[in-house]
Amino acid sequence: MTEISTLAAGPASRRARGGGRRRLDGVSILTLVLWLACGAFILLPIGAILVLASRGQQAEVLLQGDVLEAGANSLLSAGVSAVLAVVVGTVFAVLLDRTDLPGRSALRLLALSPLLMPPFVGAIAWLGVAGPTSPLNLWWRDIFGGPLWSIYGADGVIALLTIHSYPIAMLIVSAALRRIPTDLEQAARVGGAGPVRALTSVTIPLLRPALLSSFVLIAVGNLADFGIPSIIGLPERFTTLATLVYRYLQSGTVEDPLAVVATIGVVLLILAVLALVADAMVGRRGWELDSSSAVVERVSLGRARGGLGVAMWLVVLLITVLPLFALLTQTLLRAPGVPLTWDNLTLDHLVRALTTRNALEGAANSVMLAIMAAVICGVVGLAIGLLVARVPSRANRALGAVAVVPQAVPGIVIAVAWLVLAPALGLFNTPWLILAAYVTSFTALVVQAVAAPLSSTPTSAEEAARIGGATRVRALIDISCRMAAPAALSGAVIVAVTAVRELTLSVLLLSPGAQTLGVAIFSFQQAGAFSTAAAWSLIVAVLGLAVIGFAIPKTK
User: Fold this and answer.
1) From CA 107, how far away is CA 99, in angstroms rounded?
2) By C-alpha distance, which of 205, 244, 323, 259 is closest to 57?
3) Distances (CA, A) of 480 to 23, 37, 303, 389, 419
4) Distance from C-alpha of 280 to C-alpha of 276, rounded to nearest angstrom
5) How many Å is the maximal CA-CA distance in the chain?
6) How many angstroms separate the CA atoms of 54 and 420, rounded?
7) What is the SS3 assignment for 385?
8) Which of 11, 119, 516, 529 is the most buried (most CB within 10 A)?
9) Could you give the CA distance from residue 346 to residue 354 in angstroms, rounded to a whole number?
10) What is the model's pLDDT at position 166?
11) Tens digit of pLDDT for each residue in 393-421?
């Protein structure tokens, strides 16, 4: 018996005895290669920004009036929209996941649709709902002498940031709800609490870590958003740091604009990293609950079920369908502001949009760059996620942390970093510059998609493979890689969908041969070709909704 055990454990024992002499195995080589990749795509551009900011004497720029005003506006719009998004997303998640609200599957699909619509496309759509020349405001002006509500300005920026951010909170809170054991609610029910009381006194308090994570993630993202503030805020001179950076780089009114932008970018980076660190520290102090096999008992809404169902449908349709209808009317009307009648409808704008050379080239370039970014991010993100989840070490934890750092870096800062590096790398005025920025920004999406579910799965299969004589790399490839492949594919699809409609990076890295669809739509809007911009926005929005319709599984 002892001899059999020794033979079975022989390969593992020999690897353990030889571990001190053979340190450079396949996993170590893979780790080294991934560190080189992260160094080239993440640490190098961030380092370029830090070096550029430290060289110049630009600290006094942060105290200038326009920078202080833009900073205050950025904090206001990002903070308020994040709070509102968390509130809306939590209400939606609780109603759809823990109550008997009617039509939950269709409501969930519609409620998540703003997540896949580009924010600048959503801004163009909402101009058709609440813009100065929208049918609603024209009708209201004829009756009362003034518009009902003009979406231009700070309130419009906050409203649209909220609409495009609440699905993130909804997804995070829904995932947290599934991890909260329903036994706790049932115990409260046995103790005499009603369904609503059990939900509010037991479930909601346990969601605090998820609520904080949602707030931080949304606030950091909204702090760097460019599309909504540029389209909705600038007409009322509501300037954020993202739009101020764009103005500095385009106008040439400031001396050494790259150094100024780098200085502002470092401040944004510090704020974002501090927020993420605070979120991580709070998350460590949170409760870790075991999952429950108990059947989820949905809270009965009773007599309020019908009223809440109607109200929920009205809100969701207002958020999702009304902007699409506005895009459709903007596309079909002969000119903005004319009455919506059959005589004023035309397909000329749609035909012009589909035959405009710049837009078609932009669409082709966007698809090409999106596919290439998805492949690169999918492979690199899968490898990093495997090491983080399956080979725990300080080096791999640091590798995972470096890979997700770009999520805390505003996209416009990443663009400036690659602008600084482009001449030295020979990438200036090439589409590969945009591709490099995409890889920097979106690799974290795949890393998180792979590492999170893989960390919660047992390692018994890998251990069995190791006992059978497989090397660490072979065990990772044969077992963990196959398990994580679907998650990596989903992450790569998200990268492709995100990149094909991206604006912030492309608008600064645009070159003569690298027009993208997002920049083409933005250029139409800025040039006053509102109907053409609306036509392309409608196409992008409909395709996005089609993708989300196939991607999100139906739930009962």
Assistant:
1) 13
2) 259
3) 22, 21, 49, 9, 38
4) 6
5) 96
6) 14
7) helix
8) 516
9) 14
10) 93
11) 888 888 888 888 887 677 777 888 898 88
